[in-house]
Amino acid sequence: MEKIKVLVVFGTRPEAVKMAPIVKQLKGNKEIDCRVCVTAQHRQMLDQVLDIFKITPDYDLNIFKHGQSLTEITSRSIEGLEEVIKEYKPDVLLVQGDTTTVFAGALAGFYHKVKIGHVEAGLRSHDMYSPYPEEANRKLTGVITDFHFAPTEDSRRNLLNEGYPDEKIFITGNTAIDALLQVVSEDYVFENELLNSLDYENKKIILMTAHRRENIGKPMEDIFNAINDVVNKNSDVEVIFPIHLNPKVREIGNRIFGGNQRIHLMEPLDYEAMANMQAKSYLIVTDSGGLQEEAPTLGKPVLVVRRETERPEGIKAGTAKLIGVEYENVYNEIDLLLNNKEEYHSMANAVNPYGDGHAAERIVDIIVKSFKQELKINN
């Protein structure tokens, strides 16, 4: 049997993190020829992850431009990928998650009749415009996918409810857990000296992130004002806020948090530092999807400042709580976890629903077995 040619496509930091364990497994499999193509939809933060996991792309489309529109990202990705696909002629094209690169990558593969594998398939918020454009990217990608690698039973059920055949859906766990377990270390030393100097034993350190388009404006102002007031009330609390590069997020963050000495605004942390910061934190407040999956592995409660989430498994398991974006809710829920030990421990000790760290192995095994089966049928 000739080697199975697998093209792995990603363009942002979250995709790179979750694809890194798969790339490692593919490269280590003698039955597979694997090549990596990055669109570089994001540039700086993507390169940090490539360096951490020692991934050298075979193809780099380098499409990033300041102020780029979704149309520009989509069109430049498809045009660049067309040349890559024509040259490499892959048997399978793998995409991960819900970015514009994911949809463009899958569409480019479909146009050339390449089988599509969608890692982290089946996540749904059931609101096409929240998160935007991620929910649409997920659903549009699903239509042209051959291998739906669903991280959980809930994800599988979403796909079945939309009419996808059961034999094309595979529950694998989430590769975010595979990646996280590779980089977290008890003796990790941060490059940022402030993070090394924090009193993690006696202080309650909150790690927060915020970047969702739908939160920018009054929702984000309410969230930030609530956090500011919680910190002012609780003298043993400090906040680490690696602030997103979006200038609108930065304006709101600097305006509301600028005068608070116990809220530390800093440049975005690379993936390895962010993972270890989660491990050292007391709790996490976020509108990010990835942190909802990672933090439970580390026993850290997650408060999700959104109106809905496409990751309901953590909510059901009790590792995360969806608290909305209104000032009063955000203030009360954070204050509750800071001052109610029973409530805190019930979330910190809940079972992580997102996997065991072997998702990448399962995905690669499924690809190999599928092609072997196809070969038998054709012969």
Provide structural commentary.
The protein is an alpha/beta fold. It has two domains: 4-173 and 357-378, Glycogen Phosphorylase B (Rossmann fold), CATH 3.40.50; 193-349, Glycogen Phosphorylase B (Rossmann fold, 3-Layer(aba) Sandwich). It contains 16 helices and 13 strands. The protein has helices at residues 13-27, 44-52, 70-88, 100-111, 134-143, 153-161, 175-183, 193-197, 218-233, 247-257, 271-280, 290-294, 312-317, 327-339, 341-348, 359-378; strands at residues 4-10, 32-38, 59-60, 92-96, 115-119, 147-150, 169-171, 204-208, 237-242, 263-266, 283-286, 302-304, 320-322. It has a seven-stranded parallel sheet with strand order 3-2-1-4-5-6-7, sandwiched between helices. β2 (32-38), α2 (44-52) and β3 form a beta-alpha-beta unit. The longest helix is centred in the last third of the chain and has 20 residues, at 359-378. The model has no long low-confidence stretch (mean pLDDT 95). Its EC number is 5.1.3.14.
Question: What topology emerges from the helices and strands here?
Answer:
Blueprint: E1 4-10, H1 13-27, E2 32-38, H2 44-52, E3 59-60, H3 70-88, E4 92-96, H4 100-111, E5 115-119, H5 134-143, E6 147-150, H6 153-161, E7 169-171, H7 175-183, H8 193-197, E8 204-208, H9 218-233, E9 237-242, H10 247-257, E10 263-266, H11 271-280, E11 283-286, H12 290-294, E12 302-304, H13 312-317, E13 320-322, H14 327-339, H15 341-348, H16 359-378
Parallel strand pairs: 1-2, 1-4, 2-3, 4-5, 5-6, 6-7, 8-9, 8-11, 9-10, 11-12, 12-13
Helix pairs in contact: 1-2, 1-7, 1-16, 3-4, 4-5, 9-10, 9-14
Enzyme class: isomerase
Domain UDP-N-acetylglucosamine 2-epimerase: 24-367
Protein name: UDP-N-acetylglucosamine 2-epimerase (non-hydrolyzing)
